[in-house]
Amino acid sequence: MMPDNMAPGSGRDAEEGENMSSEKGLPLNVWYISFSAFFADLGYQAVIVGFPLFVVLILKAPVYYYGIAEALNYGVGSIFAYYGGRLSSKYGSKKIAILGNSLIPILSFTGFSSTVYEAVAIFAGGWWSRNFRSPARRALMSETVSEENRSRAYGLLHGLDVGGGILATLIFIFLISRNYSFRMVFLITVIPIVISTLMLVKVKPVAYQNGEQVASGKKSNRFFKWVIVSSALFGFGYYSMGFLVLTVSIVTSAIILGALTYTIFLAVSASVGFLMSRVRLRREALPLGLLGYILAGLGAAIYAISLIEGFPVVSFYVATVIIGLGTGFTEVLEPTIISKVAGNTGKGMGWLTASRSAGLFAANMIMGFLYFIYPAYSYIYAFLVATVAGLIVIFAGYGYDKALLAENR
């Protein structure tokens, strides 16, 4: 596939020289894409952390309404993600990434809602645009960096992505503590999201393809399917982080302490991303299953135990750190593996985002109703499902890791 804005013989060699990966550093395009992610999260993550509080505490809706809202966001979002991946393969990942990213500011107007239905509809519009953009942005990253540096590139992407979210939550906490309205806090997030789109405009993709797959075509294709299945299954237990915010806010009767939970989660997850941008793992399936899925599930289990035993708030923060670690490894390793084993990167990233979103559709419905019955039940469910997903990807990826080890000797 020919990169966007590039015709045969139009200085391609010069651009490849400019963007070529090296052992010393990552190409300039990787930084453009990563900072685009930083500014996007600097904007919409403030809305994400505030959305459950706005729905439950301001609009006075039951908690399961929030679960239904998130299920709608992710469920329909999975369709947008799937077609975003397909269209990026057809029309170019840069064009689709810019299109989706430019529509995310829709969610910044959520604070103008007077009913929960209006809030859900407005937030969903921006969130679906985000889902539409995500596979294209991941594919764009694969196209602009060589295969051996992809885990590093996705690590930087995740680190800056979540780093922007950390600042967003801190800004949210500061402004709410200063008695700014949810409407105003949400509205100002338009500015960094627009900057995010402008960063994507500056990207000049290089035609890196998938390259030689790590395993044979048949085995790679089989493992691709298992990763998609595991991602969907993990999604069944990978609830919206808004549940963590609500749990701590309700237990402590303090909105700021609840929002701080999300800040901690993002900080830990970002740290994993930056760590992964500096190293290359000799295995990828085993860490994804063990350090990704299962570790995140363990954090959910600690939430359940803390609720049952009435542990102090610090236990929730410890559990949040563990969930952040697991999520960080997952967000780096999933796209890294898919970029290597998918026959078509755009479609592969579309399937990855869609499978996670489909799982999240069910997860948020189930979590919402279990939480309504007894909060600990929802976290026990999340632990069990995440553990099963981790075991599946570990066993299914044994051959993939074996081939990867052989290649790196």
Low-confidence stretches: 1-23, 208-218
User: What general form does the structure show?
Assistant: globular
Largest sheet: none
Structural class: mainly alpha
Percent range for β-strand residues: under 5%
What is the CA-CA span between the terminal residues? 32 Å
Radius of gyration: 20 Å
Q: Helix fraction? A: over 70%
- What is the number of strand segments? 0
SSE pattern, N- to C-terminal: HHHHHHHHHHHHHHHH
Mean pLDDT: 82
Total helices: the number is 16
Describe the structure.
The chain is mainly alpha-helical and 409 residues long. 79% of the residues lie in helices and 0% in strands. It has helices spanning 12-19, 28-58, 63-91, 93-103, 116-143, 150-177, 182-187, 190-201, 217-237, 242-252, 255-276, 285-309, 313-341, 345-373, 375-396, 398-407. Helix 2 (28-58) packs antiparallel against helix 8 (190-201). It is globular, with a radius of gyration of 20 Å.
What features would you highlight for this structure?
single chain, 409 residues, mainly alpha, 79% helix
Please write out the topology.
Elements: H1 12-19, H2 28-58, H3 63-91, H4 93-103, H5 116-143, H6 150-177, H7 182-187, H8 190-201, H9 217-237, H10 242-252, H11 255-276, H12 285-309, H13 313-341, H14 345-373, H15 375-396, H16 398-407
Helix pairs in contact: 2-5, 2-6, 2-8, 2-10, 3-4, 3-5, 3-14, 4-5, 4-8, 5-14, 6-11, 6-13, 9-13, 9-14, 9-15, 10-11, 11-13, 12-13, 12-15, 13-14, 14-15
